[in-house]
Amino acid sequence: MMKEGKLLQVSQVKLPIGYTAEDVRKACIRKLKINEKELISYETKKKSVDARKKEDIHYSLSVVVSLTDKAYNRILSARKPMQDVSVYNEEKLEIKRILNDKSKNRPIIIGSGPAGLFCAYVLAVAGLKPLIIEQGQDVEKRTETVDKFWTTGELSETTNVQFGEGGAGTFSDGKLNTMVKDPFKRIPFVLEAFVKFGADPEILYINKPHIGTDVLKNVLINMRKEIISLGGEYRFETKFTGFEEKNGQIKHIVLNNEEILPCDEVILALGHSARDTFELLFSKGIIMTPKPFAVGVRVEHPQEMISKYQYGKMYDRLPPADYKVTSTGVEGRGVYSFCMCPGGYVVNSSSEKGGTLINGMSYHNRDSENANSAIVVAVSPSDFGADDALAGVRYQRELEKKTFRLAGGAIPVQLLGDFIENKTSTGFGLINTESKGKTAFANISDILPEYITQSIIIGMEDFGRKIKGFDREDVVMLGVESRTSSPLRIVRDNDTFESNIRGIYPIGEGAGYAGGITSAAVDGVKAAEKIIEKRL
Questions:
Q1: CA–CA separation, 406 and 441 (whole Å)
Q2: ∠ CA(305), CA(309), CA(311), 5° rounding?
Q3: Contact 447/264 with Cβ under 8 angstroms?
Q4: Contacts of 397 by beta carbon, 8 Å cutoff, 6+ apart
Q5: Does the pLDDT of residue 2 top 80, yes or no?
Q6: Is residue 3 scored above 80 in pLDDT?
Q7: Matching Pfam families, A to Z (predicted)?
Q8: Burial (Cβ within 10 Å: 0-12, 13-18, ≥19) of residue 229
Q9: Which of 97-101, 109-113, 429-433 shows the lowest per-residue confidence on average (mean pLDDT)?
């Protein structure tokens, strides 16, 4: 907590690996050219590893300092402005409270992933007592169900890695970095909420924050308790199966094909895998369009190899390193790494019987032997014959069915050298797999279209020129990574967030408006703000 004083932000504060709190204090004093008594307190706002020069790897911090009036005024009145120093004005997102809500119906949210969760949280804080409908189980039961699937192969189509409390992000790395630019302080609001409910405070300032699947589960439980304490309600293992509208306005929804709930607003926070719900919405005239996504495989490398490449001799004194690589495949297609998981696991993420797909996951400590990342190839609507909005769903589903048949429901595994030679592997090299779910050796190129197979080969060879060992023959490949993002977008009004039927609000990744936990959560906050403004 910052002590009272005048605030400045100091950027580019250089500190050695293994620095202490005292090192930060002294570095700020030196940079500001003040004496010790003039620095009242400080707080780190950003922290990143600067590894551009292997012989000089260090941390770079942005620090907010609280100064005496005398020091503050002296710095700002200097003839020559001090480099990397600026006035700090902290603004927080304010949630409006509704004290006398006249609506008979509370907002209903379908889905409890990041978009639905944060929409519900903001609505609950505002006093609107939302109802959250989730087809899957709560996170405690869900964890047991998913663990059982990974062990036995027994799949539940309503509770799995995709569906259940927290959405697909629950069984992921829990990455929180985002490319979204939001000047209204929604991103800090989301991160501060995660910390309030149990995440490590470092996510507020590190350059590439992540929670980890183990910590995220506790955060979900604590947020659920808070929402309920504010008058919200969760209904797990309850499926949204229909709705009715009148004169272009939502009137009620149907649950489990029998229960009717009147509503004025229903928020569709579906996630990118809610295919049966997409089909329902399409059949009921909700306007949607196909959109591009990407398809490919996951690759595993020794984490030590990646960290040594990024950090050199300092690798064992720093957190597990990540990477981001891009290239160009056949027909000019983008080939790139996606959802890279340092010290992570490749997990069977299937949600439909007869289909297999994978994703990456890691715990907070990121302490497995391997780094993994998807290597994916851009796919456009022209590739799957986009004669309707659901064409991308059919394209994904066909790949997943082929994957299931190829490996009998297990995750197909192949060494990169054999993938290039188009033959099934017979064993691992020096790299073993770190995965959750049964695996079986298979020829993954039998699953993929030729343009994806060849693009991956071109990309891996290119990445090997950038990162030594990236394209070694015993790199472990696993298939298939088919759900990098939603294959469609549910059209909504830019101002109201409503679909072509008033009162229906499509949000988050499943609706095509986000990509990842933080951007989905921010979209949920925005939707809640729209509903609050409507009810004021």
A1: 9
A2: 115
A3: no
A4: 275, 352, 355
A5: no
A6: no
A7: FAD-depend_C (PF21688), NAD_binding_8 (PF13450)
A8: exposed
A9: 97-101
Helices (H) and strands (E) in the chain, counts: 12, 24
Query: What amino acid is encoded at 488 in this protein?
Result: L
d(CA 231, CA 225) in angstroms, rounded, equals 10
What is the mean pLDDT of the segment spanning 304-316?
A: 96
CA angle 389, 390, 394 (to 5 degrees): 145
**134-155 confidence digits (pLDDT tens):** 999 999 999 999 999 999 999 9
Spell out the domains of the chain, with CATH numbers in brackets: 6-87 (3.30.70.2700), 108-289+489-535 (3.50.50.60), 292-481 (no CATH)
pLDDT of res. 530: 98
* Residue 395 parent element (H or E): helix 391-407
Q: Which residues pair with 478 in a beta bridge?
A: 298, 413
- Do strands 288-290 and 259-262 pair parallel, antiparallel, or not at all (unpaired)? unpaired
Looking up tokens 């990509």 gives 515
Give 386's pLDDT tier (boundaries 50, 70, 90).
Answer: confident
Q: In what order do the strands lie in the sheet with 435-436?
A: 358-361, 345-348, 435-436
pLDDT band of 28, cuts 50, 70, 90: very high
Average confidence score pLDDT of the chain: 97
Query: Would you state the pLDDT for residue 181?
Result: 85
Whether the pLDDT of residue 1 is over 70: the answer is no
**Interacting residues of 356 by C-beta distance below 8 A, sequence separation 6+:** 348, 350, 400, 403, 404, 407, 409, 410, 411, 412, 480
Structure letter (DSSP) for residue 384: G
C-alpha–C-alpha distance, residues 433 and 414, integer Å: 10
Beta bridge partners of residue 352, listed in sequence order: none
pLDDT at residue 253 tops 70: yes
Q: Give the pLDDT mean for 207-216.
A: 96
- pLDDT score, position 404: 99
In sequence order, what are the residues at sequence separation of 6 or more whose Cβ sits closer than 8 angstroms to the Cβ of residue 479?
A: 297, 298, 358, 403, 411, 412, 414, 442, 444, 447, 448
| Phi and psi at residue 372, to the nearest 5° | -135, 155
By residue count, the chain amounts to 536
Q: What pLDDT score was predicted for residue 100?
A: 86
pTM above 0.90, yes or no: yes
What burial class does residue 441 get, using C-beta atoms within 10 Å of its C-beta: 0-12 exposed, 13-18 middle, 19+ buried? middle
Specify the pairing of strand 345-348 against strand 39-50. unpaired
DSSP per position, 243-285? EEEETTEEEEEEETTTEEEE-S-EEE---TT-HHHHHHHHHTT
- 322: tokens are 């990540």
Euclidean distance between CA atoms 325 and 340, whole angstroms: 10
Residue corresponding to tokens 């309920």: 228
